[in-house]
Amino acid sequence: MNQTRNAWTRRFVAALVFLLPVLIAGVGQDGVQTFVVAPGIKHILFVKPGPLRIHVLELDLTNPNYRVESYRPTGLVPTSEQARRNDGPEHRVVAAVNADFFSFTTGWPLGNQVVNGEFAHGTESPRSHLAFDARGHPLIERLSFTGWFRTHAGATYSIDGVNERHKAAAIVLHTSFSDTATSIGGAGKRFLLRLVSPRWAVGDTLRFIVLKSNPERTTLIAPDEAVLWAGRATTISRAGKGVKVADTLLVYLRFRPHLASVLNVVAGAGRVLLNGQPVPDSVNVSQKTSVAFLETLHPRTFVGFDRDTTKLFLCTVDGRQETSDGMDFAQMADFLLSIGAWNAINLDGGGSTTMVINGQVVNSPSDRTGERPVANTLQIISREQPTPQR
């Protein structure tokens, strides 16, 4: 009986500690509440005049027990559900935020995405992206996809995108992240490939064996497979004719500018800080972000890191509510500088803005229907085995 009572007490106290920031915020007092989520991870709630409610998840990037990954489901899925799906033994999702802007029509992110070295989406883009290299160090850069493949006979052809929609004069590579929104049917030739290189990699030459021409199975591509699709336009007709079953193809997928050893990438819309300075509106306008978007108060999801890339800040600010107005870019920049950020990027916001910690949504999404389904997320992963439930 005592053991049962003690176990219940521990669970009650743990739940109370987790919910305390939300309970305090509900009182409406200005201030800062800080809670330890796990060693090396802090959840900080700022309640400021405005009114503003800002959630910050501060990660110690020097802690080897954690890494930051991007996650891409099939279609649009709420952030909390994406965290649940990616959670598992020795791969615990400690926290997650929504990531890139996306198309409600196709359910695909608008920018590039890389998941643990594999392109989930490769596209031409004018916008800044947040990337993490093999050491877990973050960087922000304008990234656009480029690639090529080389036939057994030595002819080289450009790859126009990864998991992109088809155009008659395009060559598209489909990976295990492909779905019905990026159909691999249509007029053109397709080839089922098997990866024979040790792993997927960005900016490195990959070797594939051609398994089949025009395969009947065009969905549920395995993680070690790909489908190469070549349109029927006369400008690329030779590309399809030059690929034969049992051939070895060389495939090269990378970004412009070139980045080595990139493992995870998501896109945003607008850079907030560059080397400790707010980014001028003109720079973001050149990346197809409007002045109205920069200057209007919105719920926001944004990510920053400090000067020596030892701390990562995942941030959300609620908006369109009586308890929080939201922020514009100037306010985001001021806030990020106040907490020690040196570089920062804006991700999708509005009704998409969501922060999840230990499976619970901690902010207040602005949509009346609650948490919005989104195209991808940025997640903090713990390598440690979860504590067994009692």
What do these coordinates show?
By secondary structure, this protein is an alpha+beta fold. It has two domains: 256 residues, no CATH class; 112 residues, no CATH class. It has six helices and 28 strands. The strands form six sheets. It has an eight-stranded antiparallel β-sheet, sandwiched between helices. The radius of gyration is 22 Å and the shape is elongated. It starts with a helix and ends in an 8-residue tail after the last strand. The N terminus is likely disordered.
Distance between the termini: 14 Å
Uncertain spans:
1-28
Assign a percent range to the helix content. Answer: 10-25%
Mind telling me the C-alpha Rg?
Answer: 22 Å
Number of helices: 6
Largest sheet: 8 strands, antiparallel
What is the strand content? 35-45%
What is the typical, i.e. mean, pLDDT? 90
Q: What number of domains?
A: 2
Q: What is the global morphology?
A: elongated
**Secondary-structure content class:** alpha+beta
- Spatial order of strands in the largest sheet: 1-2-3-23-22-24-20-21
Total E-strand runs: 28
